[in-house]
Design brief:
Number of helices: 2
Order of helices and strands: HH
Shape: rod-shaped
Structural class: mainly alpha
Length: about 40
Amino acid sequence: RIDDCIFDALLVHHLRILNWLVVNSPRAMEQRIIPDLHRGID
């Protein structure tokens, strides 16, 4: 059914946006950068 296809597409799009927001949030950036800095120091 077309409705199901549209719903699936919206769901995927929504999840992608949520994922992008999480990845690009300042806290996520800090958590990603800090371990890299520690690795660089070692």
